[in-house]
Amino acid sequence: MNIVTREVVQTDLVRVAELFDLYRQFYEQKPDRELAFQFISNRFNSAESVILIVENNELGIVGFCQLYPTFCSVEAAPIYSLYDLFVLPSARKLGAGRKLLLAAEEKAIAEGKVRLDLTTAKTNLPAQSLYES
Question: In which element (H, E) is residue 40 found?
Fold first, then answer.
């Protein structure tokens, strides 16, 4: 399966919001597509985050990650915090999550970030395993 990553554009926001809603449900939040759309579109429109997506010709957009710019005071330098990463269950084990992480790393390097912090739930062992690899 040919999987590519790219930065989100305005026309992707509805689909990314759908995935963000599923991501929130994974973390035991109630479904709320309107809230998901508001959150994603507000981050995009105010340039408060960078959203990367993974897609292919057959399935369309199957995953996303969201990078939040922040700072490391110890290093006195800018970093990204990768707090949100989600891939549809049907697209897992195809390398989509790994491609998103590699794209996030490339974006961080290109923008002069000195570090990329990854955060997930302590109970999310599959994500932890991916991050560690």
Answer: helix 33-45
How many beta carbons lie within 10 A of that of residue 30, not counting itself? 8
pLDDT of residue 91: 87
Question: Do residues 89 and 110 touch, judged by C-beta distance below 8 A?
Answer: no
- Which residue in this structure is represented by tokens 């599959």? 126
CB atoms near residue 54 (< 10 Å):
26
DSSP 59-125: TEEEEEEEEEEEEETTTTEEEEEEEEEEE-GGGTTTTHHHHHHHHHHHHHHHTT-S-EEE---TT-H
The label of the residue with tokens 């989600």 reads: 86
The per-residue pLDDT for range 33-54, each reduced to its tens digit, is: 999 999 999 999 999 999 999 9
Tokens 């006195």, residue? 76
Its pTM stands at 0.88
